[in-house]
Write a structure and sequence with these properties.
The complex is a heterodimer of chains A (about 375) and B (about 600). Chain A contains twelve helices and 13 strands. With about 375 residues, chain A is of the alpha+beta class. Chain A starts with about 25 loop residues before the first strand and ends in a 9-residue tail after the last helix. Among the domains of chain B are: about 240 residues, no CATH class; about 130 residues, Glucose Oxidase, domain 1. Chain B is globular. Classes of the chains: A alpha+beta (about 375), B alpha/beta (about 600).
Chain lengths: ~375, ~600
């Protein structure tokens, strides 16, 4: 039997649409998008929305905000965390914040998950294995914070993500580490500055099928620097996207005309680092790029079109510019959609003077480039 | 803080012997020309490459007055330029410095912006008829002067006045067309660069249109090939240019026939001087040496220059550059690019920049020159160009008989010649810029014609310019060339170029064009990618770098250099031993660049 596609939501075991979600777990394909963000955090909520709108996303479930809150309450973590934060006071120094962060994160690692929740998560993980037709299916365990988009943006990349986690014990460990990452020093300091209680922004955790990545990357429905809305920008490298997201690799840069899908430019970068699955460690880690892949162009035209098509439909769905993280699976065939693992609104907008001119206006261009008191570009 | 190069050294109050301020009264709109004055360091002054020999009193009046202070200031008001009011001029000795006049009042700038918003589209829409009308008007005046009998005109005062008015009117038309065309081109250029188009390709979009100057070169080349076919190559090889006419006449036979054809050629193309609007320089008809020397040069090359192939290549390169540029643009950007390209191909600045020289710059000063020569003849002057050493009011006094030439004026002319020669010898030491140096300028003429971009403005301030071995400029014509540098002060030195030389100069003018048939590369202090050297370098496939700022200072005559016209880099590979001393002198002497 071949692997089922990630959007194949029918249960291969009995062919019925059994409901697997509960108060601790919501499945991407079952949750009402209205409820998705509240229960599964913004990252998972948006994936559920994308799935509903017809975009290909990996299979998976979210360990809900409720599950997190109940764990903290019932295990006594809440009181211990509050005590540490109380001790910090209103304006602690950096070292004190670092110390508090380490202390709280250690508490999360050491506090076992209740029997009830362990059972729920085990059932869910086994269901995911079944759906993927795999034993101990490797998953991505991703923090999925709650709160406003602005806070989401401020916390971008701050919470933990674990790629290639395999087996329920490791999944449970990764979930607890993600919970603890709500208390990184940066997050603590931010909340102290803003006067926000951590109770006001509980965290959910996504457990999603790890797509075996041939290539991954990010894509923007507008130029991320100039804000030009007439193009889609893709940055990509071999393997998983972590090396790109963390800025460890200089990726290939592609620009595509949004209205006609033409590739405007493709700059092949020298890619030194790759995020690859390490079977010995059982996780995705960053290693040196094999020499023969370093200077090779990652994407062909068909793949670029598939990414651009996904980005366009996500932007259309939300009605505002977005950035996305995408993966091209080893099993993807030409014509298949690419898999979207994350999306966010883009906040960059073109300044009026930077906006691309709508028509050739010699007076406006002379004013802009010649009579502006600034050097003419390219001179 | 802005760098300031003092002008005190040149603001001494001394000028040409016998100079009085009332000698130098001229029409202007914002600021009139003069020798440098204390306080002038508030402006940003650049050495004008057009007159590398220096200017005689009459030439100084005519260009700084009618060209800059009337022509540019008039055009800057007519368009208008929102933040600029044209160019004014000062003299350091005989050498001309220009300075853009800024408009700083915000209300005024806003009002001017409103006016250009109406006038620029109107100009572009009617470009063809506007330029044709201006050109036809000037051609009609030119035909009038061709029919004038200067020798038979008893009082030359009126003719001299008409001849000057012809020049002044030509400058109104010249800058009245140049400013809006440049504003359109530079706006398009900025938009292209902003859309990610390689700036080195932008000039190519507009290349390959035939001009009267290229036509002249082709015809002269055809004459050279006819001389070879007629077996006259030997005559050209064994005589210096100034001996050629007599030698050909002595040779008789086929040479006589050839000379007749040559004279027919001159009647069409020979009304051109070896300089821009310089009353002090003869036309090809007055002095055959230059065109005959060019024929001699053409004959030295064994392989024929294929003008048609060069033109085809230019057009093919243009099509390829446009296709490349478009392929990297979004559909929205393509719409802007296509419309901008069409506008700039219709009002094609690079084409006009070459073509207009035939109608204006290279002959517009000739009627005044004829008048001056006739007057010199009547007054029994020592040289036929002695009148060029008079200031305008002095000239009219002599012409009308109000003042005698012999006596005081005649001896003043002698002193002024010495003054001119003294300053001519100092040309290579003249500072490239004076006054308060900005990072960028806004006057389109300064940007495109003089190549005053942030890079070249920085380069001319380098105190170690004389010692540097690697220079950057505008990559104007692609390709790489190595060769021996010939540093030329003016077109008077063109004969020093050998096949394979690399030309190094302040800037080139149309009369330098044939030299591109034999040189391997070209480097200029000034000029943008649409300057004469850039355009001709591309047409002839000669690697060219412009706007280096200090090439004539850094490179010694005889140095072995490499020109990379693709990256805009010029490298001195080996210093010439014979020029090492000269270079050391230049380095030791205050080169005039800011320290």
């Amino acid at each position: 039997m071949t692997l089922a596609g990630p959007t194949d939501t029918t249960d291969p075991a009995d062919g019925t649409d059994a409901v697997h979600s509960c108060e601790a777990v919501v499945w991407l394909d079952e949750v009402d998008p209205e409820r998705a963000i509240r229960a599964g955090g913004s990252k998972m909520g948006r994936l559920a929305e994308l799935l509903r709108s017809g975009v290909q996303v990996p299979q998976g479930f979210a360990v809900t905000v409720d599950a997190y809150a109940r764990h903290c309450r019932e295990s006594g973590l809440d009181d211990r965390i509050d005590a540490v934060i109380m001790r910090l006071g209103g304006s602690p120094d950096d070292a004190a914040v670092e110390g508090a962060s380490a202390e709280i994160r250690a508490m999360f690692r050491e506090t076992p998950v209740s029997e009830h929740l362990t059972r729920r998560l085990t059932e869910a993980y086994e269901e995911l294995c079944l759906r993927c037709v795999d034993v101990n299916v490797p998953v991505a365990v991703r923090s999925s914070a709650t709160g406003e988009d602005a806070a989401d943006a401020s916390f971008a990349g701050i919470f933990d993500t674990y790629l290639g986690v395999s087996g329920i014990d490791r999944v449970l460990d990764a979930v607890r580490n993600c919970w603890g990452s709500l208390f990184t020093a940066r997050a603590l300091a931010y909340r102290l500055r803003q006067g926000i209680s951590h109770h006001a922004m509980p965290i959910a955790v996504g457990v999603i099928e790890l797509i075996h990545a041939r290539a991954s990357g990010v894509a923007f429905s507008v130029h991320p620097v100039t804000g030009k809305a007439d193009r889609i920008v893709i940055e990509t490298s071999w393997g998983w996207g972590e090396a790109i997201v963390q800025g460890l690799v200089d990726p290939d840069h592609v620009e595509i005309g949004k209205s006609d899908g033409r590739v405007l430019k493709y700059d092949v970068a020298h890619k030194r680092i790759v995020s690859a699955f390490d079977f010995a460690v059982g996780a995705v880690t960053e290693i040196d790029m094999p020499a023969k892949l370093a200077d090779r162009q990652v994407l062909d035209t068909e793949q670029i079109e598939a990414i651009a098509s996904a980005v366009r439909s996500i932007e259309d769905h939300y009605g505002h510019p977005v950035d996305v993280e995408w993966v091209i699976s080893r099993h993807r065939r030409p014509g298949d959609p690419v898999c979207i693992v994350q999306t966010r609104p883009v906040t960059v907008t073109a300044a009026p003077e930077e906006a691309a001119p709508a028509a050739y206006d010699p007076v406006a261009l002379a004013q802009k480039y010649l009579f502006s008191g600034r050097p003419i570009p390219g001179r | 803080m802005a760098n300031v190069v003092p002008v005190d050294e040149f603001a001494t109050g001394e000028w040409y012997p016998g100079f009085k301020p009332e000698h130098f009264e001229m029409p202007y709109i914002v600021d009139g020309a003069s020798p440098f004055r204390p306080g002038d360091e508030q402006g940003f002054w650049f050495l004008d490459f057009h007159w590398s020999r220096g200017l005689t009193p009459l030439a100084a009046t005519l260009w700084s007055g009618d060209g800059y202070c009337w022509g540019t200031q008039h055009a800057a008001e007519s368009l208008p330029l929102p933040p600029g009011r044209g160019i004014t001029a000062r003299f350091a000795g005989t050498h001309l410095y220009g300075c853009a006049l800024p408009e700083t009042d915000p209300r005024e700038i806003g009002a001017r912006a409103n006016r250009i918003a109406t006038n620029l589209p109107h100009f572009l829409h009617n470009y063809r008829s506007i330029w044709d009308a201006g050109r036809d008007e000037l051609e009609a005046t030119w035909q009038y002067f061709r029919g004038v009998d200067f020798a038979g005109t008893p009082d030359l005062t009126g003719l001299l006045g008409q001849a000057r008015r012809y020049h002044k009117r030509s400058m109104e038309i010249h800058f009245g067309v140049m400013y809006p065309m440049l504003a359109n081109f530079l706006g398009f250029y900025g938009a292209c660069a902003d859309m990610g188009i390689d700036p080195g390709d932008i000039g190519k979009f507009l290349q390959g249109e035939d001009t009267k100057i290229m036509e002249t070169d082709r015809e002269l080349y055809r004459l050279a090939m006819r001389a070879r076919a007629a077996g006259l190559a030997d005559v050209f090889e064994t005589h210096e240019p100034h001996e050629l006419r007599a030698a050909l006449r002595r040779h008789g036979g086929a040479a006589s026939t050839w000379l007749t054809e040559f004279d027919d050629f001159l009647q069409v193309y020979g009304w051109r001087q070896e300089a821009t609007c310089d009353v002090g320089v003869p036309s090809w008809i007055e002095d055959n040496t230059i065109p005959l020397g060019l024929v001699k040069t053409f004959l030295k090359k064994d392989d024929a220059h294929d003008f048609e192939a060069a033109s085809r290549n230019a057009l093919a390169e243009r099509a390829e550059a446009i296709e490349n540029a478009r392929s990297g643009l979004t559909r929205e950007e393509q719409a802007v690019f296509d419309a901008g390209l069409q506008s700039n191909q219709e009002a094609n600045f690079p084409w006009w920049q070459d073509d207009h020289n035939y109608y204006i710059d290279l002959k517009v000063m000739l009627p005044l020159r004829w008048g001056c020569q006739e007057l010199a003849r009547r007054e029994g002057a020592d040289h036929q160009d002695d009148m060029l050493y008079l200031f305008w009011p002095e000239l009219l006094d002599v012409a009308s008989g109000r003042a005698p030439y012999s006596g005081e004026l005649r001896s003043l002319v002698g002193e002024r010649r010495q003054y001119f020669d003294h300053w001519r010898a100092k040309r290579s030491e003249m500072p490239k810029v004076l006054g308060t140096i900005p990072e960028a300028v806004e006057d389109p003429v300064l940007i495109e014609i003089f190549g005053l971009n942030p890079g070249s403005i920085k380069a001319v301030q380098n105190p170690d310019a004389a010692k540097q071995t690697v220079m950057k400029g505008v990559p104007a014509a692609k390709g790489t060339a190595r060769g021996i540098a010939r540093v030329l002060q003016s077109s008077d030195d063109l004969h020093r170029l050998e096949p394979g030389s690399i030309l190094v100069c302040e800037s080139t003018s149309p009369n330098w064009t044939p030299a591109f048939g034999k040189i391997a590369g070209a480097v200029c202090d000034g000029g943008g990618m649409l300057s004469h050297a850039a355009i001709v370098g591309r047409e002839y496939g000669v690697p060219t770098v412009t706007a280096v700022g200090v090439a004539t200072l850094s490179i010694g005559d005889g140095d072995e250099i490499e020109v990379d016209g693709s990256t805009g880099t010029v490298t001195i590979l080996t210093k010439s031993t014979t020029t090492a001393d000269t270079t050391a002198d230049t380095a030791a002497a205050p080169a005039g660049v800011a320290g």
